[in-house]
Amino acid sequence: MTQSPSGQIAVATDSFLALAAALLGPRGLTQDPDLLTPWLTDWRARYTGRALALAAPASAAELSALVKLCAAHGVAIVPQGGNSGMSGGATPDASGTSLLVSLRRLNSIGAVDTDNRQITCGAGVVLHDLHEAAASAGLRFPLTLGGKGVATVGGLISTNAGGTQVLRHGTMRAQVAGIEAVLADGSLYSALVPLKKDNRGFDLKQLLIGSEGTLGIVTAARLRLVPALAERAVVWAGVPSLQAARALLLHCEKAVGEALEGFEVLPQACLDTVLAYLPSARAPLEHKHGWHALIEVVADASGAATLSERVETMLASAFAAGLLEDATIAANEAQAEAFWSLRESVAPAERAQGPAMQHDISVPVAAMPDFVDAAVADIEARFPGTRALAFGHLGDGNVHFHVLAPEGVGAGIERGAWEEAEGKAISRAVHDLVTHWGGSISAEHGIGQMKRDELARLGDPVALAMLRAVKAALDPLGLLNPGKLLSPN
Ligand SMILES: Cc1cc2nc3c(=O)[nH]c(=O)nc-3n(C[C@H](O)[C@H](O)[C@H](O)COP(=O)(O)OP(=O)(O)OC[C@H]3O[C@@H](n4cnc5c(N)ncnc54)[C@H](O)[C@@H]3O)c2cc1C
Question: I want to staple 255 with a disulfide (CB 3.0 to 4.6 A). Which of 16, 64, 217, 314 is the partner?
Answer without folding.
Answer: 314
